[in-house]
Amino acid sequence: MRDPLSVLTEAFTAFLFGKVETTRLPVRTSTGQAQAVYLPTAAPGLGDSGVIIGREVYSGKGYVYDPFQLYGQQLPAPHWLVLGESGNGKSALEKTYVLRQLRFRDRQVVVLDAQGEDGVGEWNLIAQELGITPIRLDPMVANDAGIRLNPLDPAITTTGQLALLRTIIEVAMGHGLDERSGFALKVAHAHVNNHITDRQPILTDIVERLRHPEAESAEAMNVDIDDVRAWGLDVALVLDRLVDGDLRGMFDGPTTVGIDLDAPLIVFDLSHIDRNSIAMPILMAIVGVWLEHTWIRPDRKKRIFLVEEAWHIINSPFVAQLFQRLLKFGRRLGLSFVAVVHHLSDVVDGAAAKEAAAILKMASTRTIYAQKADEARSTGQVLGLPRWAVEIIPTLTPGIAVWDVNGNVQVVKHLITERERPLVYTDRAMTESSGPADPDDHDLEWETEQRALLMERQRMNDNPRSTVA
Q: Which PANTHER family does this one have (predicted)?
């Protein structure tokens, strides 16, 4: 029996405020029906302007990313680091990203292609599709009909030329130039630039002047001419490798006529170069400076510089310093640097740890594909990833990656259209492009094309002068 006071209190409360509580019978339901009670939640996306990548795994929303659209608001820098074990989709992501970016007329891409089989680089199919001839650097054919890039090209400033020569020598020697060797190089370079005016100066001219310095260069410093010759001997021997050694023919002549720096895609095919030799960082240095002085221009174009096997850059202190300057300089002129690396430990534990940290800090976008658990923990610690992201990295399947865009961390499934598939996936063995077909790709083809058309109309409305190819 209920307490009379409680009954009286309830009656008085109901008189003042109406009936407070309604007794309901319990309802049986399934979890599928009950989930409608809870509103779905998902992390905010990056907006709908830019290049579609795929879908966010947990919400199913389309994932759109473009460093040029996000720069200045959500991104402090437009540079991008891609990490992961082979076979998980890094190559497919890079290729589709470039193809989708090139739909816009104000985009231009340079790729340093360090991988390949059957005598061609991995980007050869895409270059062919776009009507582009890759710049194939190959010391075996350079003396006959190969491509040459001249470190002393007049398009490069004299300061840039000297900086490039120093970098080449320091990379090859494994240490910095001392003051005496640096002086011998400087006076040889100055003499060549001042006295050769009827043609492009070439490396052979520098080597010859180092071996036979002019008397006035010694007199200016009140030193003996034999001393200047001795100071420049090691420098001459290093440069001679580019003239008459295993790298001959690629850099010891005038720049090849006909290299189209206005093409939407420029591919440097480095697949014929031994990736584990000292030749690779030397090539990276030469190409990097050559591009800095001949390609990056204040013409309002948005440029993407994508480097495969980027640990060759970040693992060399001298080349890393050069590219660090390029990143700082290019950011003002609309350059997005994309570095593709298998393992972060390749660079953070290497000889250029300090320089690597600086470059990683400038990469505000990080995409991490599947890694082993210990590598994932190390990567998460260096990049400051949340714990949940570190824990799922070892469990990721091919095509799915953790994306960290300046602290906005999401899990994204990369999707590929049927049009892109023949260009992205090849039949070559032992490459990460040999991935299985994904049924989800088919329903994205229409979605990708429609989104591209929508972006085209939006861009044309925002800027009537800008159109999409």
A: SLR6007 PROTEIN, UNCHARACTERIZED PROTEIN YJGR-RELATED
As a whole number of angstroms, the distance between CA 423 and CA 54 comes to 18
DSSP-assigned letter for residue 208: H
Residue 209: domain span: 158-244
- Global pTM reads 0.77
Structural domain count, the chain: 2
User: In sequence order, what are the beta bridge partners of 403?
Assistant: 367, 410
Cross-strand bridge partners of residue 336: 304
Same domain, yes or no, for 174 and 123?
Answer: no
Q: Please, which residues bridge with residue 109 across strands? A: 265, 304
Report the interhelical angle of 158-173 vs 279-294 (nearest 10°).
170
Give 302's strand partners: 107
Span 312-363, pLDDT tens digits: 777 778 788 878 888 877 777 788 999 898 888 777 776 677 877 888 888 8
Side-chain-side CA neighbours of 328 within 13 Å: the count stands at: 8
Read off the tokens for 216.
């006035």
Alpha-carbon distance 65 to 367, whole Å?
12
d(CA 193, CA 326): 24
- 424 assigned to some structural domain: yes
Q: Is 203 exposed, middle or buried (0-12, 13-18, 19+ CB in 10 A)?
A: buried
Is 361 in the same domain as 447?
yes
CA angle 262, 266, 271 (to 5 degrees): 160
Long-range contacts of 216-222 (CB under 8 A, 24+ apart): 217/187, 217/188, 217/191, 220/187, 221/183
Residue 306: phi, psi to the nearest 5? -105, 125
CA 324/CA 355 separation, integer angstroms = 8
d(CA 314, CA 17): 73
